[in-house]
Amino acid sequence: MNIIESFKLDGRVALVTGAGKGIGEGIALGLAEAGADVALVARTRTDLERVAERIREGGRRALVVPGDVADVAAFPSLVRQVEEGLGPIDVLVNCAGIQRRMTVLEATVEGWEQVINTNLRSVYFLCQAVGKGMVARGRGGKVVNIASMTSYRGFHTVSPYGISKAGVANFTKVLALEWAPHNIQVNAIAPGWIATPMTAQMGADRIRWVNQHVPQGKFGTPRDVAGLAVFLASPAADYLTGQTIPVDGGFLAGNPWPPIPAQP
Length: 264
Ligand SMILES: NC(=O)c1ccc[n+]([C@@H]2O[C@H](COP(=O)([O-])OP(=O)(O)OC[C@H]3O[C@@H](n4cnc5c(N)ncnc54)[C@H](OP(=O)(O)O)[C@@H]3O)[C@@H](O)[C@H]2O)c1
Known about the structure:
Layout: E1 13-17, H1 22-33, E2 37-41, H2 45-57, E3 62-64, H3 75-85, E4 91-94, H4 109-137, E5 141-146, H5 159-179, E6 184-191, H6 204-213, H7 222-233, E7 244-247
Parallel strand pairs: 1-2, 1-4, 2-3, 4-5, 5-6, 6-7
Helix pairs in contact: 1-7, 4-5
Bound molecules: NADP nicotinamide-adenine-dinucleotide phosphate.
NADP nicotinamide-adenine-dinucleotide phosphate binds next to helix 1.
């Protein structure tokens, strides 16, 4: 296959969770630009309709499937709905996620479960629900999970979040092993600080800290993450599996030198 052709997704069906905003929206649009038809999942229908409209304007099919990824019992019917609407799922992107700040002493079981169920349990059981068909069809597939820098490092006051994302990175490895014989590649992306509605809640001090400690001196964009997602979903990544790849402006590479001057 021509190398440029191997990055294309024509004729593929992708399911993207968290597709209404931020990184998930960027990935859904990127996959569609690369040729995929895309099913969009999040809780807010109006967000999904807006993203779907952009995908349709670009000439691809889009299916809006409002739902809560914490509701794992609904996954079999969610998968059925997508496959009836667009066809068998070739690419699953697990992007839906939330962050809640709490010290360990403040944490409640309810807060813990909200984060773990949204960010980790959902990934596990949606992979299972989509994987049943992918494995049975025997024509391979791709899973792209969204992890985080907290998959690698401890960050103050986000322990349930960090545990969920470390879990996503570990699960990505295990699933890659289990599904390698079925030609299904399973990888994860660890975004650094990306400008989305989630990070829009950050205070000025924290934003300044990020700009001073990320070697590239700025936040990334959803588009910066979408390029890697398209690659991981494409035949160009057919021999790549079990990895969690940072897209972080160099943050995990080390400390910038000379220090980045404070931004106004
Ligand atoms: N932004 C960053 O700097 C950054 C860095 C590392 C990792 N990440 C990860 O990247 C992913 C996307 O983050 P983001 O910054 O794009 O977040 P965002 O701007 O808050 O968007 C999150 C998306 O997920 C959906 N979502 C949240 N809870 C859901 C649920 N229970 N069921 C279904 N959909 C749900 C939201 O829609 P509804 O609220 O309408 O459901 C929204 O569409 C998350 O997993 C996050 O942890 C982000």
